[in-house]
């Protein structure tokens, strides 16, 4: 990415939150042993440069299988 051959985007903003307030994130990430990337549950409404990005940084709270942070 440093040489410009790949572009990244950031998925932060969610519905019903002010601007990009990360303290109010509703999106959750949950890992599984069989899936090294885990699963994300939630919605993002604005992702800058998503249409040209090769990689994405998605902000989410990580939860355990019991749902605690």
Write a structural description.
By secondary structure, the chain is mostly beta strands. It is 0% helix and 38% strand. A hairpin with a 2-residue loop joins strand 2 (28-32) and strand 3 (35-41). The relative contact order is 0.34.
How would a crystallographer describe the biggest sheet? 3 strands, mixed
Shape: flat
Summarize the helix and strand pattern as letters.
EEEEEE
In whole angstroms, the N-to-C terminal distance is 31 Å
Number of helices: 0
Kindly report the spatial arrangement of strands forming the biggest sheet.
4-1-5
How many E-type strands?
6
User: How large is the share of residues in beta strands?
Assistant: 35-45%
- The percent range for helix content is under 10%
Please compute the radius of gyration using only Cα atoms: 14 Å
Report the uncertain regions: none
Structural class: mainly beta
- Compute the average pLDDT: 77
